[in-house]
């Protein structure tokens, strides 16, 4: 068993998100290799910012660690996630997200396929 890591852990290496996402967006790998299946990451974005419509090859299993976030999947009603909420995002389904709080939104995401993100048209 490996030790758990927190968002402020000095062991975490925060990296920029893809170019189409807000500049404040960062990702840190918690476990696994993001180029291979079954990686877990922290995704964070500054309060009061939004991520444009995008999609992933993988399903996403998510828990909001801090903040308040609205997630909007194509063809579904938008959902507001509160701290501690679990959400499932189906693979290849376009979606957007907004950090509604003034504080940073921190999201734990488990991917079952390699981590990727593509701007949706």
UniProtKB/TrEMBL annotation:
Protein name according to UniProt: Cupin domain-containing protein
InterPro entries tied to this protein: ChrR-like_cupin_dom, RmlC-like_jellyroll, RmlC_Cupin_sf
Limits of the ChrR-like cupin domain: 7-111
SUPFAM superfamilies: RmlC-like cupins
Signal peptide residues on this chain, from the entry's feature table: none
